[in-house]
Design brief:
seven-stranded antiparallel sheet; 39% strand; 27% helix; 3 helices; globular; 143 residues; alpha+beta
């Protein structure tokens, strides 16, 4: 029995570490108006590739004073492994991207570098494939 305790503790440590890694790699869809996560799904290589394509389409710094809208959705995607990004605004590894889908304008990106600095960017790539991959359709404003 005494020999089983160390083995049990090691197994619990390993399983806890694996659960934490899985939690860290989850894609979360956040409803801004409701103020809560409305959907969680496992991150995978295909979702990460879609986000990498969005990063390649960065065109500039998001120009508005308040980049987080009152209505819309945000999709948080942790990048594992981090993605190297080099452009005129950032030369570092990106560890997490939040795709912001305002109801009244085009989406933009919140990007976190390896030092947890945040950057808001505009981009010119379509989000259609990304949204299909995560099976989500953000609400659009009615005109």
């Amino acid at each position: 029995m005494k020999k089983m305790l160390p083995i049990f503790l090691i197994m619990m440590t390993l399983l806890t570490g694996m659960a934490n890694a899985e939690e860290q790699n989850k894609v979360e869809i956040f409803d801004i108006k409701k103020g809560k996560v409305i959907k969680t799904l496992p991150g995978d290589e295909k979702v990460q590739k879609e986000v990498e394509e969005l990063l390649k389409g960065i065109t500039g710094i998001y120009p508005k004073f308040e980049p987080i809208p009152d209505k819309g959705h945000m999709v948080k995607v942790p990048l594992s492994p981090p993605v190297k990004m080099t452009n005129q605004w950032l030369d570092d590894h990106v560890t997490e991207v939040i795709v912001i889908f305002p109801e009244y304008e085009n989406p933009h990106l919140l990007v976190f570098d390896s030092r947890a600095n945040s950057f808001f960017f505009t981009f010119n790539k379509s989000t259609d494939d990304f949204l299909k991959r995560i099976n989500f359709t953000p609400k659009k404003a009615r005109k």
